[in-house]
Every structure is written in C-alpha cells, then in structure tokens.
C-alpha cells in the first residue's frame, strides 16, 4: 500500500547545452590569434610571403590552448577541469564519486537491466550540467555559511536521480540533506521536517519499518499547526498523516506475523487516528477494514462485524466498489465461520440492492458473484447460474472486457456443474441406455432429448423418463468441457 514520493525540491532550471563540448560557463576567448606566418611560408616556399601573412592575419583565427582542449576532451573532462580551475575541489570529488557509483550500479545490475541499456552518467550532458550547477552552488553556499542554500542545492542534486535504478545515489544526497537540515535554525523547522520525510522514505524502502516510523513521527510533530504545502497543494501535515497511516499498517502486519495481536490492534487504532487527522476517509475505511480482520483473528467476531459495518458506510459514501467487495467478503467469511450462512446471504442481498439503487454497476457485479459463489459451493447450480448471469449483464454496462470475460467464465462454471449432475447420473446408472445417451452426446454435443440418435433409441427401446434432477433438456455449453479424448 505504498504511496508515491512527493519531492519538496525548489524549482530546477536545466542549463542550456552548448554546441561546443564545454560547460556553458566556460570562458570563451574571442580575440583573434594569428598563426605564425614565417614557418608556414618557408615550408611551402611561398614567394609572396608578405601578402600571404597579411591574408592569414586578417582572415584565419587560431584557437587558444583552452579552446583546443575543450574540443579534444570529453564533456565530463571539461566539466571536471572547469570545477578545478574555479576552485571547487569538493564538487569535483563528489562528481567523480557519483560517476563511479553509477558505473558500479550498472555493473551490479548486469546486462539486460534497465540501467545497463541507458547511457552512462558521463555521456548525459544535460545531467552533468545540472550536477555541475547544483554541486558548485552547494559548495559556494557552504563556504559562505548559508545552510539553507546548501540544503536546497543538495536536494536538487537528489532529484536528478529520480529513476528507480538510481535510488542509491538519490538516497546518498537525502542523507546529506538530513545532516544539513540539522544546522538550519531560521525556517521554523520546515527543511528539517522535509529531511525526516525523506529519511523515512529511505528506511521504508529498505524494510526498516521501525526506523521509518520514527522519522515519520518526527515529520508529523514538526508539521503540526503549520500551513506548509508541497508543489501539489497538499499540506505537510496531511502528508505526514498519510505516511504514518501506511507505516502503522505495515507495522501491524509484522506484529500479526509474530502473533502479537493486541499490539497490532493498538497500532491499527493509531492508523485510524492518523487517517482522521489527515481528513482522508478512504484511508480511514481501509484502516478500519484491517482492524476488523485483526479482531476476527483474535476471535472477537462481534467487534469485527461492528467495525466492518463502519468501513462499509465509509466505502459506500465514497462509492468505493473495491472496498465494498472486500468488506462484504470479510463479513461473509465471519458469518459462515459462525454457522450463519443464511444471514450472510441476507447481507449480500442487501449489498446488491444498495448497489443497484446507487447505480454502482461494479458493486452489482461483485455482489452477484459473491452470492453466485455461495450457491455454487452449496450445489445449487441453478441459483448460481442465475446470479452469475446477472453479474455478466451488469459487467456489459461497464465497457470492461476483462470483467465481461471473468463473469462469462463464472457462467460457464455453473453450466458445467449443472451438466456434471446429468452426466454423473448416467455414469452411475451403468445401463446400456445411459451409455447410449452419453455416446450420442459425445458425438453431437447437443441437447440430449433433441439428439436424433437419442430419439431413434427412444423409439426402439422406449426408455424411462430421466430423473428430474438431471435436467436433460438443458442446453449444453458450446465448449466441449468434458472432452478428454
């Protein structure tokens, strides 16, 4: 139930790329440099030396050593040389380390991986431009003692590595941001809160749930009462609630694995509280659903049903078909485990009726499938086929081909089970007439009573009426389900 990362980065500006392979801030030398005329004339035995020298001086411009080197070197080499010339030794070291780390990630992933197919970091001039810009600005700000600017530029470097294959490089700068944020005392704790959120993200991705919870809780405490918002307009405090809601559910899951049910219940109650504080009803409904399952596992069925009813009200208000289906499936399991199958069917019928009144076609499909499965398990294949057919009809209104095919499959299952009743009755009879019925159906796959061979057999042998439960006149499925030949 993970959530997408939101970046608190300041606005980044991609620096323009120059035609010459040198940084756009590399000094240009526009003064003309005259080629040495004397040697040139002597080598080629030019008679009109003075005229040629004058022409060369006026029309041919030479290159300085720096410009010649800029054309010979790679883009990465020009970036590194420029950093060193301007005194950014730390930025040079970090850029060199990043390139080495990127190459190590590529080698570790191996051929066929996504990062292996991409250009290396030193062959991406736009990214090198960004790294040069933000690294040197961070170093200059650090020298000037401006921690806020150092943090902002480090965060922008982290955002340069937003692909999943580059997470290690991103995390390296998130950790630098966290260390820098501890030095900032002038922004009311805003950057420190951001840094805790990023550290929580790192630990969550690495599976360190408890450590992630500590950072998210610090993020929540620092944002209480604040009006800070991210670039999407969400307040930092609501984001903190969302992170804590998710991490508490993960914690509860781990606790259930260790049979710590009471601790899991307490943790899920905290998740519900976070969902309410964040004003997100969907999160509240999901947390309530999870809490009901824990109470069910703990044997407190009455409490579990009560909480499930609460989650159903929330999902109904949100028109959340997926949530409603899971909640009613849970209710069905609890009631059946208590021997209250009839009550379960009543609840599902109510679900179907409410879904029809609210014009929730997806929920109508879900309700009909759930009811059809119950009848199918009980061996009442006629009722199962009835509800599966209703599910198929409702699915056709949703323009969802996969759902239509799914409900069609349910209909086929119910029809096959009906056919098995008739088929098995003939197998169990073990008489010549039943055998001829089966052979005739095997040849034509048509209705048993209307089969010409069967009619001929009827005239010759005058067979008795088949038993009512066999439903011999029911149309057989077009697909030869029983053909094992």
UniProtKB/TrEMBL annotation:
SUPFAM superfamilies under this entry?
TPR-like (SSF48452)
GO biological process, any: cilium movement
**Which regions are flagged for Low complexity bias?**
471-485
Give the primary localization class: cytoplasm
**Placement of TPR repeats on the sequence:** 365-398
Give me the ranges of the annotated region Disordered. Answer: 457-485
For this protein, the parts annotated as crossing the membrane are: none
Which locations, inside or outside the cell, does it occupy? Cytoplasm
Q: Name one GO cellular component term.
A: cytoplasm
Q: Which UniProt keywords apply?
A: Cytoplasm, Repeat, TPR repeat
Q: Which domain of life is it from?
A: Eukaryota
What the protein does?
A: Axonemal protein which is implicated in axonemal and/or peri-axonemal structure assembly and regulates flagellum assembly and beating and therefore sperm motility.
Name-wise, this protein is Tetratricopeptide repeat protein 29
The root-end lineage is: Eukaryota, Metazoa, Chordata, Craniata, Vertebrata
Gene from which the chain derives: TTC29
């Amino acid at each position: 139930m993970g959530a997408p990362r939101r970046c608190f980065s300041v606005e980044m500006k991609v620096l323009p790329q120059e035609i010459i392979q040198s940084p756009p801030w590399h000094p240009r030398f526009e003064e003309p440099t005259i080629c040495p005329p004397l040697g040139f004339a002597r080598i080629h035995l030019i008679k009109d030396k003075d005229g040629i020298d004058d022409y060369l001086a006026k029309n041919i411009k030479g290159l300085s050593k720096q410009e010649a080197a800029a054309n010979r070197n790679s883009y990465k080499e020009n970036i590194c040389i420029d950093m060193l010339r301007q005194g950014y030794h730390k930025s040079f070291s970090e850029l060199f380390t990043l390139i080495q780390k990127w190459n190590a990630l590529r080698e570790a992933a191996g051929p066929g991986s996504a990062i292996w197919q991409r250009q290396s970091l030193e062959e991406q001039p736009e990214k090198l431009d960004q790294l040069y810009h933000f690294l040197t600005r961070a170093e200059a700000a650090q020298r000037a003692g401006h921690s806020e600017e150092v943090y902002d530029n480090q965060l922008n470097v982290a955002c340069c590595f937003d692909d999943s294959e580059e997470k290690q490089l991103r995390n390296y700068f998130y950790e630098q941001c966290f260390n820098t944020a501890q030095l900032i005392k002038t922004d009311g704790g805003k950057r420190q809160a951001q840094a805790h959120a990023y550290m929580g993200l790192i630990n969550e991705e690495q599976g360190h749930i408890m450590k992630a919870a500590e950072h998210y809780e610090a993020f929540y405490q620092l944002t209480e009462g604040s009006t800070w918002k991210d670039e999407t307009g969400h307040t930092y405090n609501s984001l903190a609630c969302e992170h804590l809601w998710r991490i508490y559910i993960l914690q509860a899951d781990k606790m259930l694995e260790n049979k710590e049910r009471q601790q899991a219940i307490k943790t899920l109650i905290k998740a519900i509280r976070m969902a309410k504080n964040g004003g997100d009803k969907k999160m509240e409904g999901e947390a309530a659903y999870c809490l009901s399952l824990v109470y069910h596992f703990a044997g407190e069925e009455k409490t579990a049903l009560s909480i499930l009813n609460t989650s159903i009200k929330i999902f109904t208000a949100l028109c959340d078909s997926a949530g409603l289906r899971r909640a009613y499936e849970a209710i069905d399991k609890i009631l059946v485990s208590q021997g209250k199958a009839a009550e379960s069917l009543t609840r599902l019928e109510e679900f179907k009726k409410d879904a029809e009144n609210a014009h929730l076609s997806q929920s109508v499909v879900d309700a009909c499938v759930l009811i059809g499965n119950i009848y199918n398990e009980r061996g009442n294949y006629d009722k199962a086929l009835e509800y599966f057919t209703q599910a198929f009809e409702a699915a056709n209104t949703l323009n969802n081909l996969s759902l239509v095919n799914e409900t069609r499959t349910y209909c086929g299952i119910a029809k096959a089970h009906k056919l098995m009743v008739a088929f098995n009755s003939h197998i169990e009879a073990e008489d010549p007439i039943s055998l001829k019925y089966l052979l005739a159906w095997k040849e034509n796959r048509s209705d048993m009573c209307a089969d010409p061979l069967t009619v001929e057999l009827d005239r010759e042998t005058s067979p008795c009426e088949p038993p009512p439960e066999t439903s011999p006149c029911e149309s057989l499925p077009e697909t030869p389900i029983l053909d094992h030949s």
